[in-house]
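step=encode ok
step=design start
structure_in=
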């Protein structure tokens, strides 16, 4: 399981959305 910043999860009410945005930022 990939480690996701807690700040990102707390910032977005939807974990899935936060993960999607996180992956896009990493890919870009």
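sequence_out=
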């Amino acid at each position: 399981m990939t480690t996701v910043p807690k700040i990102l999860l707390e910032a977005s009410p939807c974990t899935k959305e936060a993960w999607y945005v996180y992956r896009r930022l990493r890919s870009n």
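step=design ok
step=annotate ok -> The chain has two helices and no strands.
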